Amino acid sequence: MALLRKGSSRISLQNFNGRLQRENAKTGAITASLAWNDPADLDFQAKVWLKGGGFETISYRNKRAAGGYLDVDMHANDMHLVDEPVENIFWKKPPAGLYSISVNLYKDRSGRGGRAEVPFRTILKREDEEDLSVEGQVSSAKNWVEVFRFKVDGSADTEMQKLNGPLPVQPAGPGRSRPMRAMRAARTAPKAKAKAKAGLVKAKLSKAATLAKKKAAFKAAKKAKVAKAKAKAKAKIAAVKAKAKGKYKLGTYNKVLVFQGKKLATKKGLKKDDFKKSKEGKIVSVKKSALGKESKWAKAVAKARVEKGYVGFKAIKKGGSFYEKAKELMGRA
Hints:
By secondary structure, the chain is α+β, with helices and mostly antiparallel strands. It is 34% helix and 25% strand. It has a seven-stranded antiparallel β-sheet with strand order 1-10-9-2-7-6-5, covered by helices on one side. It has a five-stranded antiparallel β-sheet with strand order 4-3-8-11-12, with no helix packed on it. It is extended and about 85 Å long. It starts with a strand and ends with a helix.
């Protein structure tokens, strides 16, 4: 369990951002993300001591809290494992307070036995601030590794804090004295306890029977829905194939077939020379691609990226400094 030197996780920034895009991870004024290369289940957690009083935790048990949201949570299920997992927490409007973000090895699936160690990489993104990256590893000892600690003021500005120092006391949950009261009540009223237990068993049996009926009805409805969807899809495919028998191909993949030389032209008369393959591997119109590159806004955004020194993916948001810079450059053109 430790923080490691840069590059230890063997996860590049490009690969990291690719995982977030794959899972449609959202971003906010503050965004914290975790990536690792292992079938293990790592937990990503944020603890927040609110300035106005109170304490909240964001984790797999409580995904929405303190104005934030754990929108990507992976490897919780043995049946849904991927080679390149990622998790993500974001705050659109982070409340003022002290934030502590940590990583934990919840479940080891390596089969190695003994003390398993899983390297990871975390990235903290703050609006109009430089991104921060921390790499480390967690072990089967199930201890938490703190990766980021910062304070947020009333205007959402962040101030990074020293890691692994003492944190404020976590408030105790309510209802600590209830078990004792229940024990005293049980000792003084055994008949009432037996009666309550019998009523609870009866309620559970009734609830189980109702749940079984609901499950059966749900399965029947789901089966009918799937059968209907399959029939509809089959009919749609048959209709598309019928239309494709002629010289022209109608449908989503028209331009792809023309570009591959399997069809002479599209319905609108566009031929193979009117298309090209983009950097993303998509088949696009040569004319529309040229118009997009000549767009004043596209040129202004490209110049703004250079002047701001951004590398890799950077979202442009209305009202942000990136957006304002692009707008200013477009006005000069």
